[in-house]
Amino acid sequence: MGAVNCLFDFAVIGLYFLVIISTGLAMGRREKTMEGFAMGGRQIPWWAVLASILAAEISAATFLGAPGEGYALRNFAYAQLAIGTVWGVW
């Protein structure tokens, strides 16, 4: 049963990378300049830029580890990180 789960996991990860790479290549072909590709033609809403910056600043380890640590310690110390980051970037 373990081998089947492992193969399924690798298939899901492979599909994820295939979708991400395909999307990037398709979007990259539409832009004619590097500035248009990097800046999105300056048509990206502010909230999407904020979400992108937050996602880059807060790593996956923090996203997964902070709730577990808060649950284990029974406090909201890590909630300050998330709320403070959003407040500070805004």
Summarize the topology:
Blueprint: H1 2-30, H2 34-39, H3 46-57, H4 60-73, H5 77-89
Spell the H/E element sequence.
HHHHH
Approximate strand percentage: under 5%
Specify the biggest β-sheet: none
Tell me the overall shape. flat
Tally of separate domains: 2
Number of strands: 0
Alpha carbon gap, first and last residue: 48 Å
Which structural class fits the helix and strand makeup? mainly alpha
Low-confidence residue ranges: none
With helices defined by DSSP (H or I, 4 residues minimum), what is the helix count?
5
- In helices, the fraction of residues equals over 70%
Please tell me how large the radius of gyration is: 19 Å
- Summed over residues and divided by their number, the pLDDT gives a mean of 80
Report on the architecture of this protein:
This protein has 90 residues and is mainly alpha-helical. The chain folds into 2 domains: 1-39; 44-90, no CATH class. It contains 5 helices and no strands. The longest helix has 29 residues, at 2-30. The radius of gyration is 19 Å and the shape is flat.
In short:
This protein is mainly alpha-helical and 90 residues long. It has helices at 2-30, 34-39, 46-57, 60-73, 77-89.
Overview features:
single chain; 90 residues; mainly alpha
